[in-house]
Amino acid sequence: MTATAHLKRTNRFRRVFTAFCGILILAGLAIAGSVLVFPVEMLDDEGRLPGEMPPAFAFGLLLAALGVLLAAAGGAVALLRSVWRATRHRRP
Questions:
Q1: Using CA atoms, how far apart are residues 88 and 3, in angstroms rounded to an integer?
Q2: Could you state, in order of their start, the residue ranges of all structural domains in the chain?
């Protein structure tokens, strides 16, 4: 595989990974926001709101947190890779 083909494949993976992280964050925030806009009426036996967090809200926040975590991990990998390449090519 040539260096140009490898670079194109790496850049494509980087763009797809960043887009996937962004989609996770936006989808999670949309799900959490939809619960805030359209609240679920969960009433207890006495007809009162129990005050619990709706499962859809928790799932939305989980998706958003996963997207942020993956984006941060991708940034850390990119940083470590660039530092490693810089130290590897340095001549003493």
A1: 18
A2: 11-42+49-88
